[in-house]
Amino acid sequence: MTDTGYPSTYTGVEQILERLLGPEGCPWDKEQTREALAGMFLEECYEFIEAVEEGDTDKMVEELGDVLFHVMFQLKLGEDNGEFTREDVLGTLVEKLLRRHPHVFGDKQVSGADEAIASWDAVKRQEKAASGGSILEGVPKNMPALAYAQAVQARAERAGFDWDSFQGVLDKVTEELSEIEAASTDDERESELGDLLFSVVNAARWLNIDAEASLRGTNRRFYRRYAIMERLSREQGVSFDTLSMDEKEALWQEANVSS
Fold first, then answer.
1. Domain named NTP pyrophosphohydrolase MazG-like: which ranges (predicted)?
2. What is the model's pTM?
3. pLDDT tens-digit profile of 161-195?
4. Does domain 152-208 have CATH number 1.10.287.1080?
5. What letter does residue 108 receive in the DSSP assignment?
6. How far is CA 134 from CA 15, 67, 137, 143, in A?
7. CATH architecture observed for domain 10-96
8. What's 112-133 look like in SS3?
9. Are the CB atoms for 102 and 108 separated by under 8 Å?
10. 163 phi and psi, to 5 degrees?
11. Counting beta carbons within 10 angstroms of the beta carbon of residue 257, is it exposed (0 to 12), middle (13 to 18) or buried (19 or more)?
């Protein structure tokens, strides 16, 4: 690794951050606010997730570093603005981890992962009950819609609100499809489509499939196959836009084999 003059440690990044935000630092960095950085932070998280799904270790290293930098930047802003300290953040985390793992740091006994997550949820329900809140409150409402749906469904299921069987879930998907067909207005169709998506996410949960990751995988496959179709049409000396639907379908099948 190149000798940069800064140690390859948490302290080294802190020193760089101090320099960036100092009197002779970067004008752009010094203008940033928590709100301005939030969108970029989320983007870095997605880039890390993409690296994980691709199994690209080098990319994981880079993107995880970007995520960590944003965390440290937010800590720095909180401290500089007198809002909180890193001890506040880390102390709150320590207390939460201890409180929600009584089977590790207390006397509670669990037989495996399922009982461990049930114990975690029981503690969270107790916390919410004490504050008068809903168990669903902890799920961020600005999450991607599929991920949010799966998260709230999982919490409801762990509280005992769920279908008796997977067939009931599939029947609900079929029901929602028929309701889209029966809808007579744009507002009704939008509402019924939302219900259908929610039901499909529920099916993914029953199959232990991450709906968001599943759709990202399909998006990647579509992108790859569509790009192959465009390349094949160029190789044939024709414009993809001018092909008939039957010709495009033939290219799609060829691209499906090639990918």
1. 32-105
2. 0.69
3. 999 999 999 999 999 999 999 999 999 999 999 99
4. yes
5. -
6. 42, 30, 5, 18
7. Orthogonal Bundle (1.10)
8. CHHHHHHHHHHHHHHHHHHHCC
9. yes
10. -70, 155
11. exposed
At how many degrees (to 10) do helices 145-158 and 113-131 cross?
90
Tokens 């997605």 appear where? 46
One-letter identity of residue 87: E
Contacts 24+ apart (CB under 8 A), 200-206: 200/173, 201/146, 201/149, 201/150, 201/153, 202/149, 202/153, 202/163, 202/169, 202/172, 203/166, 203/169, 203/170, 203/173, 204/150, 205/150, 205/153, 205/154, 205/157, 206/163, 206/166, 206/169
With CA atoms as reference, report the closest residue to 197 among 146, 140, 141, 155.
146
* Separation CA 42–CA 114 (nearest Å): 30
pLDDT tens digits for 198-212?
999 999 999 999 999
Measure the CA–CA gap between 138 and 127, rounded to whole angstroms. 11
